[in-house]
Structure formats: C-alpha cells, structure tokens
Write a structure and sequence with these properties.
It is a single chain. This protein is mainly alpha-helical and 215 residues long. The chain has a single domain, classed as Up-down Bundle (Methane Monooxygenase Hydroxylase, Chain G, domain 1), CATH 1.20.58. It has 7 helices and no strands.
C-alpha cells in the first residue's frame, strides 16, 4: 500500500515540476517576444493555454485521489494539500502569461516609451521570481521561499514605475490604447509575482506546517 502511495506521490511531484517548468518557459517566451517583436512566439504561448489548464486539472485530480484513497500521514498530507493549493497559482500564472502573449500579438512595437522600457525590465524581474518559486518547491528550501517573498517587492516597484511613466508621459489620445496595453501587461506581471509569493508560502507550509497568513 505504501509503495503504491510513494509511486503516486512521485508522479505528483514530477507532474507539478513539469507544469511549473512550462509556466516558467512561457514567461520567458513572453519576455523574449516583447523584446524581439516576435508575434509568432507570443502566439505559441497563447496556444498553450488549453494544454496547461488540462494539466493543472489532472494534478488536482491526482491530489484529491491521494487524499481520499490513501489517507496520507501528516507530513505527506501537507505535501499533497500544498500542491493542491499551489497548482491553482501555477494555473493562474499560465493564464496570465497567455494574456500577456495575446496583447503582444497585436502590440504596436513602434511605441518604445519609458513605460515600455520599464515593462521589459519588469519582465526580467518576473522571470527571476518565477524561477525561484519553482526552485523553492523542487528543493523544498525555506530560504529560497523566503527569498521569493522578498523578490516580489522588486516586481511591485516596477509596476509602480510603469504606472508613473504612463502618467508622466502626457499620453496623447492616439497613444492611449498603447499605454493601456502596457499597463495591462504590467498588471499581469504583477499578479504573477503575487502567485509566486503564494507558492513560496505553501512551500513553507509543507516544510514547517505553518499555514500562510497564520502568525
């Protein structure tokens, strides 16, 4: 019985890491697409949305099966329930990467204002926090999880800078839609940072048993 449980737990771990890796790659592709004006690359990210969603649902089903059928002990239950929570955040990261890609597919790349330059830097910061969040789970390392939470400050700061650049840019009506596109992409990146923090907090829960938000 335990052997079967360990096999399913190993499968769950592998599937979650694969999904996390796919989300990380999609963020990287979004950033590259914006930097290189590559609409085809953005399209490839957008087209992956359905597949990633299905993989998220498969992981959720596996988690519920392990909880209901195997009745795991405390430490295993923390891992499975933590993954069940984290997969929701990975799913949202995948969706928001698709949202960024959808905008990038139609974005007017002739606009290279300060807001767009800051957006690119924000994207680089977001790539790092996504990588760190997945790494925290792979290693089950609390120090890395704590680092993720601190890194989110940088993403939030860039979001504020993008908004300020748009306000200070004295946007003409012809550029209003472009600035809105930049703001929306920045908002999606900011939300991705938030989801990474959620993942980090659930990693800490798996390690310590301390639930997120509980002092």
């Amino acid at each position: 019985m335990r052997e079967q449980f360990d096999e399913q737990l190993d499968e769950l771990n592998k599937e979650f890491i694969l999904l996390g890796s796919s989300c990380e790659k999609n963020i990287e592709k979004c950033c590259t697409a914006l930097q290189t004006r590559d609409r085809e690359l953005a399209l490839s990210v957008f087209n992956q949305g359905y597949e990633l969603n299905n993989r998220s649902r498969d992981i959720e089903r596996l988690c519920l099966s392990l909880i209901l059928r195997q009745q795991p002990v405390a430490s295993d239950l923390r891992l499975v329930s933590g993954v069940l929570k984290m997969v929701t955040d990975l799913d949202r990261i995948g969706v928001q990467a698709g949202d960024i890609a959808e905008i990038a597919m139609k974005y007017d790349f002739e606009h290279r204002g300060e807001d767009f330059s800051l957006l690119l830097k924000m994207g680089e910061s977001t790539k790092k926090i996504v990588h760190a969040a997945i790494d925290a789970y792979v290693k089950l390392d609390q120090a890395t999880a704590d680092q993720v939470i601190r890194m989110d400050d940088s993403v939030d700061q860039y979001f504020s800078m993008v908004k300020e650049a748009i306000v200070q840019g004295a946007v003409h009506s012809s550029e209003a839609k472009i600035s809105l596109d930049v703001l929306l992409m920045a908002k999606y990146l900011e939300r991705i940072g938030d989801h990474c923090c959620n993942i980090a907090e659930w990693v800490i829960y798996i390690i310590t048993g301390k639930q997120p938000g509980v002092k």
